[in-house]
Amino acid sequence: MASxxxxxxxxxxxxxxxxxxxxxxxxxxxxxxxERLEAQLLQADVGVKATERLLQKVKEGFEGKTADEDLLxxxxxxxxxxxxxxxxxxxxxxxxxxxPTTLLIAGVNGSGKTTSVxxxxxRIRSEGKSLVLAACDTFRAAAADQLAVWAQRTGADxxxxxxxxxxxxxxxxxxxxxxxxxxxxxxxxxxxxLHTQTHLMRELEKIRNVLQRKIPNAPHEVFxxxxxxxxxxxxxxxEMFSKSIGCxxxxxxxxxxxxxxxxxxxxxxxxxxxxxxxGVGEGIxxxxxxxxxxxxxxxxx
Length: 301
Ligand code: GDP
Known about the structure:
Layout: H1 4-11, H2 13-19, H3 31-43, H4 48-62, H5 69-83, E1 101-106, H6 113-126, E2 131-135, H7 141-154, E3 157-160, H8 167-180, E4 185-189, H9 197-214, E5 221-227, H10 232-245, E6 249-253, H11 263-270, E7 275-279, E8 287-289, H12 292-299
Parallel strand pairs: 1-4, 1-5, 2-3, 2-4, 5-6, 6-7
Antiparallel strand pairs: 7-8
The site of guanosine-5'-diphosphate has 19 residues, from helix 6.
């Protein structure tokens, strides 16, 4: 089986191919070089702000020189810098000192939320932690069924309601179950029907309030799942969810399906939220903790 760094590399291959950093070598860093670099960075969805900053620095440091390994190392370091939060990168999941660590997972339908929750279930159980999973999207029976499969496979405890049941009451029951069983982790999956935006946000707030009432300092993490191929749309979604429920991190999915992996930089630059995990495939192991160094190294081949 491929190691996780190989999976990461394979997952980011499309973006790496677009950037094609080895092709920079030996060229003179002139106007045409800078224009090409600008086009590549923008196509990779790095964002206008970060692209301008990077170009300015390359121009200052290397204009008139021949692009060499030093230039690659410089751009690599700058990208890592752009991706690293001011206070340093947090752990992939910050476990609370007093269990259950409560994770609230939000995101619009189609973002890869159910898949990401399944992958997180697998990860948390592989760490030997006991887990109660709350399927609060009571309208999509298929999503809850998918979680039931993973709960059973990994030995997690699933709490779900009847179709159409009040999601907050499912969250309530799940809190009771997690407390009664002294579970290490409670993970709450939520609905993502965006066409009823105000309703959705109210529903999420209600779930969050239940968690807050039942478990001290909960939710400890609020992860927003964003489709890495959604570009600016993803950023708008993040702003909306953050305003409503206050996110603590992003799970950025489907980076394997896109040459626009640079969106991780744009997200970091636009939102004050760290990317905590990235999805680089459909397999259960294809959710990787986000680490700026390894992410950028994978883009550089
Ligand atoms: P939800 O509606 O947000 O719950 O989305 P799903 O979890 O059902 O995912 C929607 C589709 O995206 C499914 O076909 C998933 O297999 C796929 N998907 C989710 N995450 C990834 C990923 O990281 N890479 C790829 N290639 N596909 C993904």
